[in-house]
Amino acid sequence: MSDEAVTGGVTSGQSDVEPVVNEKRRYFLIGATSAVGGVGVVGAAVPFVQSWMPSAKARAAGAPIKIDISKLKTGEMLGPIQAWRGKPIFIILRDAGAVARLEQNVGALADPDSANVEMQPEYAVNPWRSQRPEIGVYIGICTHLGCSPKYFGEVKAQPFNENWQGGWFCPCHGSSFDLAGRVVKGVPAPDNLEVPPYRFETDTLIVIGEEGRA
Questions:
Q1: HSE-up of 201 (CA within 13 Å, CB side)?
Q2: Which strand (E) or helix (H) includes residue 44?
Q3: Beta carbons within 8 Å of 157's beta carbon, 6+ residues apart
Q4: What is the mean pLDDT of the chain?
Q5: Which 3 state secondary structure label does DSSP give 171?
Q6: Is the pLDDT of residue 142 over 70?
Q7: Does 214 map to a domain?
Q8: Which of 142, 124, 141 is nearest to 180 (CA)?
Q9: What pLDDT score was predicted for residue 5?
Q10: What whole-number distance in Å separates Cα of residue 90 and Cα of residue 113?
Q11: N or C: which end of the chain has fewer CB within 10 A?
């Protein structure tokens, strides 16, 4: 294009007459240019801001949480804690007798060897289904229809089981789990309680949602 400039519909450079300036059009063009420039800045900023936001996968996974078990006593359960992924977390502290029973009383269990690998990390494939024999960490949701089982830690007769060896009983449909969260045979629940990924940050601080060994 030549050096001619269009102003108000009149082509300059071909007449000595001073061009007529359309002030309204000038302001419109300036405003439009500014608006387009502003859109460009915002468009450039969006990817930058999004780069600081957690991904959809990270949000779905749920942020790790820390649980202090320093006040947990032998035979007790800490929980349910509504924290990780909106699911209740059960943490129990077993005595030596309870740990021994987990290795002995397996005949009544549907999956004593944790064959369903989807229900626990690799480091929890053992009789107590945990990193440390005395400390159990489980998701407190019955694998039948999602109720929350009740904890009955003592070895004594219960209305639902005269030979109760300690564990969880789901009042919704009668499923039972031992102190390692292993499901009993012949109940509605098809699988053991799930073990979440976790690690010990200290002897009394557990991080739920991160893999790691004791």
A1: 13
A2: helix 23-50
A3: 163, 164
A4: 79
A5: coil
A6: yes
A7: no
A8: 124
A9: 35
A10: 20
A11: N
Our measurement of the distance from residue 25's CA atom to the centroid of its chain's CA atoms, rounded to an integer in Å, reads 57
* DSSP state for residue 118 in the 8-state scheme: G
* 82/187 same-domain check: yes
176 forms bridges with which residues in the sheet? 169
Of the listed ranges 9-13, 159-163, 184-188, the one predicted with least confidence: 9-13
Nearest to 213 by CA among 106, 101, 87, 126: 126
In a domain, residue 16? The reply is yes
Write the pLDDT tens digit of every residue in 36-91: 343 333 333 333 333 333 344 443 457 899 999 999 999 999 988 877 888 999 99
**Predicted local distance difference test score (pLDDT) of residue 79:** 83
Whose structure tokens read 């063009």?
Answer: 29
Whole-angstrom CA distances from 47 to 41, 55, 58, 59 are: 11, 13, 18, 18
User: So what's the pLDDT on residue 38?
Assistant: 38
CATH code for position 87:
2.102.10.10
- 97-100-101 Cα angle (round to 5): 90
Instruction: Cite the active site residues.
Output: 173
Facing residues of 202 across strands? 205
Q: Annotate 63-97 with DSSP letters as a single string.
A: --EEEE-TTPPTT-EEEEEEEETTEEEEEEE--HH
Residue 22 structure tokens = 């359309």
CA 1 to each of CA 4, 6, 30, 75, 127: distance values in angstroms, whole numbers, following the listed order = 8, 11, 22, 88, 84
Place of tokens 């109720």: 147
| Same domain, residue pair 161 and 200 | yes
Q: Phi and psi at residue 59, in whole multiples of 5°?
A: -65, -40
Spatial distance between the Cα atoms of 20 and 180, rounded to a whole number of angstroms: 89
